[in-house]
Amino acid sequence: MGKCGCEFLSTHLYNLKKMYKADFTVVNGENSAVGNGISRESAEVIFSSGADVITTGNHAFHKSEAADMFRENSNILRPANFPEGAPGNGFCVVDFGRTQIAVINLMGTLLMESLDNPFYTADKIISSLDTPNIFVDFHAEATSEKKALGFYLSKRVTAVLGTHTHVQTADEAVLEGHTAYITDAGMTGAEDSVIGFDKGCALTRIKEHFPVRFKESESSPFICGVSVEFDEKCGKAVSIERIILR
Ligand SMILES: [Fe+2]
Fold first, then answer.
1. Which of 39, 88, 89, 203 places its Cα 20 to 30 Å from the Cα of 57?
2. Residue 75 C-alpha to ligand 1 middle, in angstroms?
């Protein structure tokens, strides 16, 4: 989330990856640019911090350069259930030689824009993949929709990891002994804030219904996320652990 989140990520992601022995890292960058969306500058910070793939969400196309970025770099994803013809890709496969890992980015449709059905979009993509190692970033608002997709894809993908609400949930689990799941992985940005925004501005807007501009908060940054251990031979998750680094 914004400058504060990007700076904190670039200072700490490398050590975090070492601590968790992470071979592969996915970062949702849809609010990484100042004023939300993703920019060339913020994507560069996220990749150079150690991300292999960047996912996005409802703010994917907020910045004018985003469409070109999605076309140019297949490891920057926009939700796969955007209408046909949207620039870029909704999934990618990263080849590590001995193994391949697919990442699918989907967006929810409950309390969000009415995109294509994320469940059927997932079916279509999964049937085209040649690897059992499949990570899904489900960028959605409703906890019910997220949990439903978790069960729908259980035993077919390695992980269904929710994003978008910025608040980490405590329901991490390995569904049906196969698929790592969390309703929301949480955000990287200012902890002492209203989902990353300055408390004062957020209060004026939410309490008084006064149209002030949200301003990013820069106080007490933290990183939220999850670590998933999985068996690359069958794509089965062994464990999922929540991460909060202050
Ligand atoms: Fe979002």
1. 203
2. 19
Residue 99 CA to ligand 1 centre (angstroms): 30
Amino acid at the residue 98: R
Of 59, 139, 164, 166, catalytic: 59
CA 27 to chain centre: 6
Would the CA dihedral through 227, 129, 122, 45 be positive or negative?
positive
Supply the DSSP symbol for 188: S
Domain at 69, CATH number: 3.60.21.10
pTM recorded for the entire structure: 0.97
In the predicted structure, residue 35 carries a pLDDT above the cut 90: no
Question: What six digits make up the tokens of 101?
Answer: 């890992």
Question: How many domains are there within the chain?
Answer: 1
Amino acid at 23: D
Single out the residue of 163, 189, 157, 191 nearest to residue 175, CA to CA.
157
> Tokens representing 244?
């909060």
pLDDT digit string, tens, across residues 146-162: 999 999 999 999 999 99
- Tokens 């910045």 locate to 63
- CA of residue 240 to ligand 1 center, whole Å: 23
Q: Does the active-site annotation cover 164?
A: no
